[in-house]
Amino acid sequence: MAYKFIPFKQKELTKGEQLTNSKNFYHLLDGRRSVRDFSDQPIDLEVIENIIKSAGTSPSGAHKQPWTFCVVSNPELKKKIREAAEEEEKLSYGSRMSDRWKADLEPLGTTWEKPFIEIAPYIIVVFKRAHETIDGEKRNNYYVNESIGIACGMLISAIHNAGLVTLTHTPSPMNFLTKILERPENERAYLLLPIGFAAEGAQVPDLHRKTLNEIMVSYD
Fold first, then answer.
1. Is residue 17 domain-resident?
2. Which of 123, 122, 142, 121 is nearest to 131 (CA)?
């Protein structure tokens, strides 16, 4: 059945407004950093809900919206997730990662220890939905990885826009998240993000992003 089509409406900006808005948004996102030192300061759940609603506006293949955002604040669940994540990380740092990979991570100061999972007031575990079952019939989702990746980018931007910090965490394998959170068979864990305020005195590496000339190729 075809969708009903409705008129598209968007405020038309002047060239000056376009330039100002694009610059302001760039400067907003340029202040975003991955933070590993979190405060346990509480956050209103409504803020988290708005952040997730923002991520849910993401485009997706055939508009299937193949995502589930699991919001975890329960201390016991966070403890279980941390223990399981650290178990996998110990194996990764001990034997799974190549020497080059570990050498690339060394300047960032990362280790197998993930205390932020318990300290941050919320964690969001993003699951990708490989397919749907409707009336007993399996129905495919399309471009699932691409769709979920775009949604996660919008999620991270929304977190930063709310004045909060996060960190992308991908313990591998991530099957334990499906089990702990009792997710259905069609969902696969994709990303874990702690969300909160930065701890007092938190520090981040003095990194520098690639310049525009390094990331943009123009074809006039």
1. no
2. 142
